[in-house]
Amino acid sequence: MARRRYLLCLDDKGYPASLETRKIYRAVADVKAERRGLVRIVDESGEDYLYPRCRFLPIGVPRGAKKLF
């Protein structure tokens, strides 16, 4: 099973219906997108979409809390 990554949204400007500033989102691995400066995020719609990487900060989630995500 692939290791899950979580990112904190720093800025939802331009995406207010899809993202929420200061919310934690699950990232989906997408090597091609990451080469282009993008990250694939499961957003407010429940679907995964590409967003600029600069809008997010990777965070560590304690093992015990991962079940909550």
Number of E strands: 5
Class by SSE composition? mainly beta
CATH class wording: Mainly Beta
Instruction: Determine the number of helices (DSSP H or I, runs of at least 4 residues).
Output: 1
Shape: globular
Return the string of H and E elements: EEHEEE
**Biggest sheet, open or closed, and with what strands and sense?**
5 strands, antiparallel
**In which range does the helix fraction lie?**
under 10%
Distance between the termini: 16 Å
Can you tell me the CATH architecture?
Answer: Roll
* CATH fold annotation: SH3 type barrels
Unreliable spans: none
Q: Short description, anyone?
A:
This protein has 69 residues and is mainly beta. The protein has one helix at 31-35; strands at 5-9, 24-28, 38-42, 48-52, 56-59. A five-stranded antiparallel β-sheet has the order 4-3-2-1-5.
Indicate the topology.
Layout: E1 5-9, E2 24-28, H1 31-35, E3 38-42, E4 48-52, E5 56-59
